[in-house]
Amino acid sequence: MKDSKDRLEALRAEIERRNPAQPEFHQAVREVLETLAPVFTARPEYADPAVALVERLTEPERQILFRVPWQDDRGRVHVNRGYRVEFNSALGPYKGGLRFHPSVDIGVVKFLGFEQIFKNALTGLGIGGGKGGSDFDPHGRSDAEVMRFCQSFMTELHRHIGEHTDVPAGDIGVGGREIGYLFGQYRRITNRWEAGVLTGKGQNWGGSAIRPQATGYGSVLFAAEMLHVRGASLDGLTAVVSGSGNVALYTIEKLQQLGANPLTCSDSQGYVVDDKGIDLALLQQIKEVERGRVSEYAARRGSSARYVPGGRVWEVPADVAFPSATQNELDAQDARTLVANGVKAVSEGANMPTTPEAVRILQDAGVAFGPGKAANAGGVAVSALEMSQNAGRVAWSAQRVEDELAAIMRSIHAVAHETAERYGAPGDYVTGANIAGFERVADAMLAQGVI
Q1: Can you name the residues that pair with 70 across neighbouring β-strands?
Q2: DSSP code for 347
Q3: Does residue 260 contact residue 238 with C-beta atoms inside 8 Å?
Q4: How far is CA 330 from CA 13, 50, 215, 312, in A?
Q5: Considering Cα of 369, then 373, then 374, then 378, what sign does the dihedral take?
Q6: Residue 131 catalytic?
Q7: Which of 130, 398, 405, 445 has its CA 20 to 30 A from that of 387?
Q8: Distance, CA of 403 to CA of 409 (rounded, Å)
Q9: Which pLDDT value is given to residue 4?
């Protein structure tokens, strides 16, 4: 095993040398490589230097960078960058969201795309890993400005995607409005009604029931499975949730459906804690209809809610925690606070929201920790189900989709749990998810030759 560790460490150093100034990508690769040494010992075909399996897996198959010029409502021209990283297609067409946010750069997109490989593999649905986006910020822009940006973005992206090639979806900053504008431009350029080219569409024009809810629902269902194997349930527990976008909103909804009481939500300016539990209808009105700030929730909710500007949502004592905003939002000090407050489980709704040191602190304290590539796979799972419905030109009922989602999340939990035990790390869902996803992709890559 020492030889395997040495080789993986040398590979990690070489990846960082060849991909400078991409800390998020480095972190994502490091977190996977750190768990693979026992796999190489048990399966030497994966470690054969002549095959260079891991070297190929950590290098994207294709990286696309393009200019996105667009005009605002005053007639001023802006120029943003567009990205699409098609990382691995061994299991199926590239699948992964588009993120529109000022923080987006090639390193962020590569980190997300690399994580997507394993997340998609865990679903068992035959989809590869990819990701994309732009440093465009839709916040505060008019619908007309967002439409012009999306049309310009798709004018370039359309040549690289297709239902059998690469199927984007939404992510941060890309919701139903943006998907609609993107799909309209794709249809306009190609003269094809190719519904399966994008997921997250409106339900009356090719979208799937419960797609907006899927990531948040899945994160809660994964937490429920982690608690179940420990002889517990979510019923009656309190929860702390970060974020106030789609993932957070539907995490809150599913927690309430399962008898838990979510106490918090947040945005980039601060957080709200509501001693009575979050009023979901009020929060949805503010965030989805008015596109307002969570501070407005506290102002309108009454005496049970208070707003903490610039605070850390993890300060609020709760039984379970759901980081559902963005990467590296939960650090080591936050983890110590959660442990001190008696947290039982943490389930990642966002992508890599917990720093490596924080993960170790939680695991060392015996907290059940669900990593994003497993816990938040519900979104891409329902996206793949949307692709299936598009292929058959059918629309499934919301109950059928939710039943399928629940079965997929149970399966992801089971394979991560079983794989961790098989490799001598019982209860370590990070190791279990990484190895289970890796094995599925690695076997397909070996079968398909050196490509």
Answers
A1: 78
A2: E
A3: yes
A4: 26, 40, 19, 9
A5: positive
A6: yes
A7: 445
A8: 10
A9: 78
